[in-house]
Amino acid sequence: MARANAKDMRRRNDDPVNTLAIDIGGTGLKAAVLDPAGKMVGERVRVPTPHPCPPALLVSTLEQMVAALPPFDRISVGFPGVIRHGVVLTAVNLDNEGFRGFPLEKTLAERLGKPTRVLNDAEVQGLGIIEGKRLEVVITLGTGVGSAIFIEGRLTPHLELAHHPLKGHKTYEEYLGNAARKAVGRKRWNKRVRYMIEVVRTLTNFDRLYLGGGNAAIVEQPLPANVVLADNVAGITGGIRLWDDRVWSAVQIVD
Questions:
Q1: Distance, CA of 185 to CA of 92 (rounded, Å)
Q2: pLDDT mean over 24-51
Q3: H helix or E strand, kind and range, residue 43
Q4: In sequence order, what are the residues at sequence separation of 6 or more whose Cβ sits closer than 8 angstroms to the Cβ of residue 22?
Q5: 89 DSSP assignment
Q6: Using one digit for the tens of pLDDT, what is the confidence trace for 107-158?
Q7: Residue 176 contacts residue 216 (beta carbons within 8 Å)
Q8: What is the rounded CA–CA span in Å between residue 30 and residue 53?
Q9: Residue 47 CB neighbour total at 10 angstroms
Q10: What Å distances lie between residue 136 and 130, 170, 227, CA to CA?
């Protein structure tokens, strides 16, 4: 894991610590600098995700993208795949074989020159959404499907629901991902979302389910009382919570 160096640690108590939050998506790469309260400093930037997107190209694209942003002291990254101790295990919507075993956390820390923490993107978004009470589930609907489960605000072991069967032989991603939405149309896709909600309810007995990601904006109301639409900006603002030691220590236990 990348750790803060001595210079980073020797800050005055009244010095603000700004966090560069990066949200890596299958369609777009987004980044913003957050102040200690989680408020954006300046504007968020976004560029299309390259396709194909091998690790070297992703890293160089991120370097160029964040060069014009305000100064920052540390980095949080949400990545669309399984991350363990800063290393990529899967990246289905990018370059799965190319990313397998890639030390993304260490590489970004070295290339951008700041301590870095990397976590699955749905889990980062969840940190920006949840209340921290009882059993909360986050499902992100975008290029693919992401998931995160929290109990009393603590992250549970990561489940790749995206690649688990949901309907017949179709996985969550095949049934609800962006390609499926375009293929079946908005009305049928929304029926699939409602079906997924009931499956996840049976699977987890959630107290609250949050629907996030770019396609959450086209989920039709009404929804069950304990199902909430979340702002996609949480994929950025949740990044600051990776630097809450209580949150990060729980992540290390899960990993």
A1: 24
A2: 92
A3: strand 40-48
A4: 29, 30, 31, 62, 66, 75, 76, 77, 78, 239
A5: S
A6: 999 999 999 999 999 999 999 889 999 999 999 998 889 999 999 988 888 8
A7: no
A8: 15
A9: 13
A10: 7, 25, 10
Which residue type occupies 45? V
Cα-based distances in Å from 25 to 74, 143, 173, 201, 222: 20, 8, 14, 26, 28
CATH number for the domain running over 130-229: 3.30.420.40
Give one DSSP letter per residue of 169-206, joined into a string.
TEEHHHHHSHHHHHHH-HHHHHHHHHHHHHHHHHHH--
125, 221 Cβ separation under 8 angstroms: no
Q: Residue holding tokens 């954006």?
A: 40
Report in angstroms the alpha-carbon separations of 96 from 65, 104, 157, 214: 23, 13, 21, 22
- Structure token digits, residue 248: 């990060």
- One-letter amino acid at 76 equals S
- Intervals of CATH 3.30.420.40 along the chain: 6-121, 130-229
**pLDDT tens-digit map of 198-224:** 999 999 999 999 999 889 999 998 999
117 forms beta bridges with 76
Beta carbons of 102 and 86 less than 8 angstroms apart: no
Question: Which single residue is written with the structure tokens 């699939």?
Answer: 192
Right CATH number for 6-121 from 3.10.20.30, 3.40.50.450, 3.90.650.10, 3.30.420.40?
Answer: 3.30.420.40
Contact 29, 231 (CB under 8 A): no
DSSP 8-state code for residue 25: -
